[in-house]
Amino acid sequence: MNFNMNKEGGFTLIELVVSFTIFISLISLTTLTFAQTLQTRRVISDLNASMNSIAFVTEQMVREIRTGTDFKNFAGEETIRFTNANDEKVSYKKINGGIGRCVGGSCNVDLVYKALTSPDVKIDKLKFILRGTERGDGFAPRITIITGVAGPKGINVPLQTTISARVIEEDS
Question: Which of 15, 21, 50, 83 could form a disulfide with 11 if both were Cys (CB 3.0 to 4.6 A apart)?
Answer without folding.
Answer: 15
